[in-house]
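Lecture notes, structural biology module. Today: joint structure prediction for complexes of three components.
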Amino acid sequence: MPELPEVETVRRGLQSLIVGKIPTKAMVFDSPKSFPNALTDVEQFLYGATVKSVRRRAKVLLIDLSSDYSLVIHLKMTGQLVFVGDQRFAAGHPNDSMVGVLPDRSTRVELTFTDGTHLYFNDQRKFGWVKLFPTIEVPNIDFMKKVGPEPLLDDFTPEILYERLQRRKKSIIKAAILDQTVLAGVGNIYADESLWGARIHPETRVGDLSRDEITKLHHEIRAVMNLSIEKGGSTNKNYVNAEGKKGSYMEFANVFRREGQACNRCGAVITKIRAAGRGTHVCLYCQTSPMREQPVLP
DNA sequence: CACTTGACCTGTCCGC
DNA sequence: TGCGGACAGGTCAAGT
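The predicted structure, tokenised, for the full assembly:
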């Protein structure tokens, strides 16, 4: 999915586009799984309620309504939330939208506002979902109870990352930082990018990392995510923001999807391996550890 | 508990 | 051109 920077980019877009609007109709296409609430609840708590604010926790979006209910949305791998203010502009002009006229084949939910504008939830792979919850119950959702700290908040310190990692001492570090209960928001792209930045091989056991390495990794996770938010996120394939536009972080990526290309730091060829069950990009020559001997370029 | 693997889906790309 | 398999930004349930 969209990882933390992409979800945050969508959040910022929606905050400026839909606050104050009033949903009047929700159309669910194809799979009820995409929006499983009973129609009676949707009618009672969504229709006629005003959008108060758009929040994010981890990779989850929360659209708070004046009915004291919230739309809780997870985009998973291929989800998109695209606002269309004027259908004539959806297919490329004048706002450069990358999506065509909506709804399309991947549209799962169409939300109509009283002013005639629309919010589309598109999701090619149907892993994502939209659910209506009482706002006060959101922190009690299983995922919310288990999810780790927000990495971009000031109170997320290197010491906290070190402590959170203690529960996964025998895992490889990539699996540990992908674990949303350790910390929130890291996915496959930013796991690879931050490990490259910290010069840590993704298959290093957590228990073998020094304090200094974890401190460096903490810094890189934040630096990489902040840069990505600044660039509007990563468009690897499907991701677009709330206006249907792509993000440009991939132009700045150092390893992700750069297999076969030269490492920006040492010039060796970037390799793709499988780690933590995911495609993993690594420079085998400079991602070892500052604590260990540096391999020599072939 | 900690840790790994498969399942959930559709679409695309790559090798035969 | 067609077909099978691997793979794709994330979580969860089930297995060891």
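Point to remember: Chain A has a mean pLDDT of 94.
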